From TrEMBL:
CDD domains reported for this sequence: PBP2_GcdR_TrpI_HvrB_AmpR_like
Biological processes annotated in GO: DNA-templated transcription
GO MF assignments: DNA-binding transcription factor activity; sequence-specific DNA binding
Keyword line: DNA-binding, Transcription, Transcription regulation
Pfam family of the protein (one): LysR_substrate
Organism of origin: Parasedimentitalea marina
Domain HTH lysR-type: residue ranges: 6-63
Chain's gene name: gcvA
Name assigned to this protein: Transcriptional regulator GcvA
Length: 315
């Protein structure tokens, strides 16, 4: 048996048939006739010297050899496709695909993207609002904005300033609860999207930062940060709002932060792309715009005493 690799078309036919477990469906995917696909697989079996499929009346099954080959063939084509797409993107200076979490997309990016589009009409920007972990080598994504404390090994990673949190509410509610102590009786809103942070950045932690021993037991919980902020905007309660999610509403007076003490998380947003890709014109333009926009609201942080969460005594 020769060590020479078989033709790529034959391997492609096998990969499609192994994924679909159907010659007809595989042929449709590859836009060839079932007879042509069957011929390619037969040539692959001849090259190997043993069958890859058990052929039955209305179905096919992988042989032991087929089960051995299938994972490697699938991974090989995925890798080849990713490499090809990445190589094609090197020649593309007009399209840019960015992924960010739904809350950051809604509360931070969406109100500002008009400015980027106006400054860079030559760039076609696409946003994918998801928290799904992206593989920047395989997925059709150029830039990822992600929050947390994880490492970014193998990527270009530029961190944003650390996030802080402080109680925010509607102006009307702020009149009803003028002191930190009175907030113990206020309807509280919980942003559970950051419950993974350690040390915890939650209501009991903020109360301890204020020297108040209080552990709230009731309130409304939201899994998305933007929903929690929207509830506060509607007057449903006070939320421990994250800087990125509340800074525009604070600046424009829709929310107020009566108590000028914030707790600083150990997590932060990071601007991520493949190493070397940060110099591509559209990525560099988006990166520079992103960080310039952040700097426009840095002065709001100066209004607060910001306490690192690790400096707050545990419960």
């Amino acid at each position: 048996m020769s060590n020479r690799l078989p033709p790529l078309t034959a391997l492609r036919a096998f990969d499609a048939a192994a994924r679909h477990m159907s010659f007809a469906l595989a042929a449709a995917e590859l836009n060839v006739t079932p007879a042509a696909l069957s011929f390619q697989i037969k040539s692959l079996e001849d090259h190997l010297g043993q069958p890859l499929f058990h052929r039955k009346n209305r179905a096919v099954e992988l042989t032991e050899a087929g089960r051995t080959l299938a994972p490697g063939a699938a991974e090989g084509f995925q890798t080849l496709t990713a490499a090809w797409n990445a190589t094609r993107r090197l020649q593309d200076n007009t399209n840019l695909t960015v992924t960010a979490g739904p809350a950051l997309t809604a509360k931070w990016f969406a109100p500002r993207l008009y400015e980027f589009a106006r400054a860079h009409p030559e760039i076609d920007l696409r946003f994918s609002a998801t928290l799904r972990r992206m593989d920047l080598e395989r997925d059709d994504v150029d830039v990822a904005i992600r929050f947390g404390e994880g490492s970014d090994d193998g990527l270009y990673s530029r961190p944003v300033r650390k996030e802080w949190l402080t109680p925010v509410m509607s102006p009307e509610m702020a009149e009803q609860f003028p002191t930190p102590e009175s907030l113990m009786k206020a309807p509280l809103i919980y942003d559970d999207s950051i419950s993974f942070l350690r040390p915890s950045c939650d209501w009991p932690t903020w109360f301890r930062a204020m020297g108040i021993n209080h552990t709230p037991v009731h309130g409304t919980h939201f899994s998305n940060a933007d929903h929690a902020v929207d509830a506060a905007l509607a007057g449903a309660g006070a939320v421990l709002g994250r800087r990125a999610m509340i800074v525009k509403d604070l600046a424009e007076g829709r929310l107020v932060a009566p108590f000028k003490v914030a707790i600083e998380t150990q997590g932060r947003f990071r601007f991520l792309c493949l190493p070397g890709a940060e110099t591509r014109p559209q990525i560099a333009a988006f990166r520079d715009w992103f960080f310039a926009e952040i700097e426009k609201t840095v002065h709001i942080s100066d209004q607060f005493t910001i306490i690192p969460v690790e400096d707050i005594p545990p419960a």
